Each structure stands twice: as C-alpha cells, then as structure tokens.
Amino acid sequence: MPSNTVTLVQAAPAQTRLPAAEAAIELRELRKVFGNFVAVDNLSLTITRGEIFGLLGPNGSGKTTTINMISGLSTPTSGTINVMGYALPHDAQQIRRLLGAVPQETALYEELSAWANMDFHADLFGIPRREKAARITKTLELVQLLDRKDSRVSTFSGGMKRRLALGRALLHEPTLIYLDEPTLGVDVQARRAIWDYILGLREQGKTVLITTNYLEEAQVLCDRLAIIDRGKLIVVDTPTQLKRRYGGQVIEVETSQPIRALPELQTLAGVQTVTQSGTHLQIVTEGAEKVVPSVIGILTREAQITDIAVREPNLDEVFLRLTGTALRD
Amino acid sequence: MLHALRYDLRVIIACAKKDIKSGLTERAFTIISIILPVNILVLLSLFVLAGSQAPTAVVMADTGPHAQQFYTAMIHAHSFRLQQTTASSAQQLLAAGKVVAVVTIPAEFDSRVDHHAPVQVNVDINNLNTDFTNDIRRAVPLSITSFYAAAFPNLVSVVPNEQDAYPQDTDYIPYLTVSILVVGLLVGGLLLAGTGAAREWERETMKELLLAPASRWAMLLGKMLGAFVLSLAGVVVLLAVLVLAIGVRPVHWGEVAVFTVLTLTMSIAVGTLLGTWIRQRQAVTALSIGTTLPLFFLSGAFGPISFTTRPLQLLARSFPVYYAIVLFQHAFHNFRLNTLGVATNGLVLAGYTLLVIALAAVILRRSTLAH
Prior knowledge:
The structure holds 2 protein chains of 2 kinds.
Chain A: E1 23-34, E2 37-48, E3 52-56, H1 63-70, E4 78-83, E5 86-88, H2 92-98, E6 99-102, H3 114-124, H4 129-142, H5 158-170, E7 176-180, H6 188-203, E8 207-212, H7 215-221, E9 224-229, E10 232-237, H8 239-247, E11 249-255, H9 262-266, E12 271-277, E13 280-285, H10 288-302, E14 305-311, H11 315-323
Parallel strand pairs in A: 3-8, 3-9, 6-7, 7-8
Antiparallel strand pairs in A: 1-2, 1-4, 4-5, 9-10, 11-13, 11-14, 12-13
Chain B: H1 2-25, H2 27-52, E1 54-60, H3 65-75, E2 80-85, H4 87-95, E3 101-105, H5 109-114, E4 122-125, H6 130-151, H7 172-202, H8 206-210, H9 216-245, H10 253-278, H11 281-298, H12 310-317, H13 320-333, H14 342-365
Parallel strand pairs in B: 1-2, 1-3
Antiparallel strand pairs in B: 3-4
Helix pairs in contact in B: 1-9, 2-7, 2-9, 3-6, 7-9, 7-10, 7-11, 7-13, 9-10, 9-14, 10-11, 10-13, 10-14, 13-14
C-alpha cells in the first residue's frame, strides 16, 4: 500500500464578515480552556440568517462546547459571541427567547407525558395561555406524536424522543434553532423524517445550527459547513465547494490481479493518494481526465482492467484529507 | 413590571407542578422520604425508652402500707421499670439478664419502720452496664428519701422549697420527641428537595431549565414549592405519630403550624442548595442523613443547650437546627430555651432560610455545563 501523506490545511480561509443585521451568529476568537485542555481554540465564525449551518467534527472536537457557549450554557474563556445582534453574556435572556434547542441528550422529562413536557416548556417560555393548547397540538401533530400525547416519554423510541425534542424546541417559535447531533442513535427511517423537519425549517426562514458527525447528514442538510478538529476551525464552505476544493476526483479501478506498480502511479502528476485493497484501486487526483490515460497504461502492463469509474469525492474523503483522520476516530 | 411578575409566578407554578408530577412517578423514593423521618422519630424514641428506665424486679416480702408506700416512691423515682415478683423468679430474671437489679423489701418492713429500727433493703445489681448501675445506685437512696418525706414528714427537717419555672413537668420522651420532629422535618425536606434538584442534573434535564429565558429565582422557588408540597404528606404523618401515638400535645397549635412551615422551608432551601451544588442524588442522600443527625445531637436535642459548655453552645447557635428546636419546644411545651424570644428565634431561622435560598440562586445562576 503506498504511503502517501495528506496535507493538513493549517489555517481556516478568511471569512467575509457579514453585517450584523444579516449575521445570525458571530463568533470572534472564541476560546474555551478546561485546565490544560483547550476545547475551543480561537474560533471565528459567522452564520448567516436563514441558512442551515453544520458544525462537523469527530467526538471531542469542540462542537458541543461551541454550541453550549453560543446558547449561554458555558462561559467562554475569551472571545465574543453575538447572536441575532445580541451579545453574550449580557443579553443572555433575550438570546434564550430567540433560541430553540435540541440538546444531544434531548433533556426530556422521561417520567412525564409528551404533553406534560410541552406544557412545561410553554410555561417556561411564557407562551400565552390562550394559545398554549392549540400550539402544543399543532406541534405534536407536526412531529407526528399527537396520538401519543398522553404516553410517558420513557416509552418512546429514540426517534420519537428526538422528534418530541425537536417539537418542543419549535414550540415557542424561535428564529434560531440549534440541534446537537439530531439523529444520534436514531434508525434510518426516523433519521429521514428528522431531516425532513429540519429542511422544512429553512423554508420557514429559520436559522438552523446543527452539529453532527454524520457526513451524509451534513451533505443533505447543510448550506454551509464548518469542519473543526481539536477545537480548531479547519475550513468553512458549502459541501459542494468543499468537495471541489479539497476532494479532487476519485478514480475507482477493479483489476484482474493486485498491482505492484503503485509507486509509479503515485508519481503521476496530480495524483494525491493511491490505495489498494485486493484487486480494488482508489486513486484520488486533482484532475481525473489528465491522469486516466496514464493510469490505464500502467495498469494494463500488469493486469486486465475489469471496471473503471470516475466520481466526485464524498465528505468522508474531504474530512480525511483535511484532518488526516477518519471522522469516526 | 407586572408582566414580569406574572411570568415569574407562572414559572414558579410550572416548576412546582412539574416536580410534584415527577416526584409522584418515583413513588418508591417519595415513600422513603416520608418513611425515613417517621423511622427516625420512632427509632430515637425507642432508643430513649430503652435507655431511660432500668428494668428492676421488686420482691415484696412485706405488703404492709409502708412497704407499699416505698414501692410507690420507687415508681416516682422515674428510673425503674418495675415488676413485682417472687424471690426465686427475681433471681432467675437477674441471672438471665432480663432485669438490671432485684430490690427486696424485707419482711417486717412496716413494723421496723414504725419502731424506727434499721431496715436493710437488699439491692442485687447486674453491674454490666454502668449507666443502668448508676441509675439504680442513685434511684434507691432517692426512693428511700422520698418514702420518708411522704411517710414521716415531721421527721424530715430539711425540705426543698421548689419554685418551678413552668407549671408542668415535662418527661424526657415528650421533650425529646419534639426535637426529633425537627430532625424529621429536616431530613424529609433535605431529601426531597436535594434529590429533586440533583435529579435535573443527573438526567440532564437541567438544560431545559437553563436554556429557558425565565429567571433563576423563579425556577428555584418553583422547585422549592414542589418539594414543599411533596413534603407535606411526611409532615402530616410525623405530627400524627407525635400527637396521636406518642401523646405529645402542643400548647400553641398556631406556632406549630408556623414553625413547621418555617423549618420545612429552611430544610428545603438547604436541600435545594445541596442538590444544585452536588448534582448527584446518591451523594445528596448520604450527605443529608450524614449531616442531619450530628447537627441534631449538637443542637440541644436532648436538653437545653444553655446547660452545656460555652463552646458547645456557640457551636449549636451557628446551626439553624438549634433555633428550630427552640421554637418547637416553645410551641409544644411553652419552653423558653434561650433569651432571644420566640420572634427573634423565628427571624434568625427565616434569615438562615433566605441566606440559603440566595446561595442556591447564586449557584444556579453560575451553573454552566462542564463540556
């Protein structure tokens, strides 16, 4: 197997500072330190109103710490946070009114019914009494849990709990919603349903901030993505641009027998990585059209090519390229 | 302003309702919170009952009026749990360890007393336990003195001229059980409020509260109100056991109601503070029980703290339990255990309560998540 080292992108590309009116969230040189451990390291980021923005990174990368600081649950060691034009910690109460939160652990009262959870949330957020019952009914209907309104949450599946937590976050009609790992531990069908709700929020003009370590989820949902690793911002861009900028193209080749000329493939201009697994070769290149003829020439000297395809890279490959580690590490 | 107050009131009621519902779903725990204070009341009462009177067998070799008078004097010594029996049975009981002593009122007791001849009352003691042994050693001469004072008042030239501070005497059990009521209220309030607050952290539902725009004060007061309502069942049971089963009737019912609310509020405030601070139900439970009992013993539970040493008095006065005991002893027995007066003692207890609520609010206000 060739040993091709990937280059880490050391610095995040400079971001265009958006006018305060357009920025839903502005983080400037945000830093959070626990003892000797730097959880978030000089993070600067702007999230535009109305977009679905994803924070992507492996476990322990600083996503949840960042989101906790944005929602006022954790105090930054240094740096500034502005949410919808309000500054933390001074305007924390105003920010909480605008914020709908779906924490990773859902924070539902499992011993209570779905309705009791919603009712409590409505009182906590001061939803007018006259509107309360109608709004709860409408929201439970939206997340398809109205028929289970009197059931204890402890009897719900993981997906139902996530839907209920999402419904609860929407009950007070927030303009900014954050979802921390919204589909963690949820089956495929429920995941699809949650994605549909999240995509529906964009239609309503809401700003959505999600953290995830599912690349597929980020690709489907997010208008823009920030990849963070070890508390540092690696890159911010749209999923498409990220793939274009950092992923190149991938040539997948199936051969009749394993190939020995991997070092030769590696030296071809534009080739970034070459990996072989049995008779399967994967070559990541900057421009496939220039490389494919040379690849075919080298491979056919040793074996027959049974299949060859060129495709766009996925975000896993982008992530690997940018951080040097797979997302599940 | 009015809108903000209404909103705060709504949050208080919502938090209380939610905690009551949550508490009622955890029935086992709620029942334990009720049973534990009653258990403490019963156990400590039994402990006192077991320790206060020495089981003693009396052999009446003479049953004349003086012998009977002597027996009555022994009853009034409040140190014996007497049973009359035969000489052989008495020795068997002593050998079996079922009585501490055998007191034998000899034959010809009456005639020897009438003739002012010396009478020897034999006392066989199982001196295994110094406490009981000393009780017997003190109580037998006391009974003899009492007997003479009653039977031959003209022969006793030195007599006490007693001026009582209170119109009624109060036995040890009625005195102590009132203090035990305080510890019961303390344990019940601490457990319910402490575990209620810690449960929010353990189950990670605290995020729902911390992310709400409501004031921390309102949330805290709501949680305290919830714990207060849940504690009421335990209070009713405690008072019923004290009044109906043990037979301790308060002199001032109104004070009992007010001081119960005050003491319960204080213990709930401390519980909320501990739960918010420690965030673990198991630790809160251990700490509640572990600190309440020493505090109870330190705070004048067994007798007025003013009868003890100066350092112990200073120590006791630094704990709110002391003031609660003072107040309850007044409510039940009309006792004044210190010179502060009922109102001042009440104010000190209320001051402690407000201080603890403020501390809990500060801790909740500063509460952030660890990650």
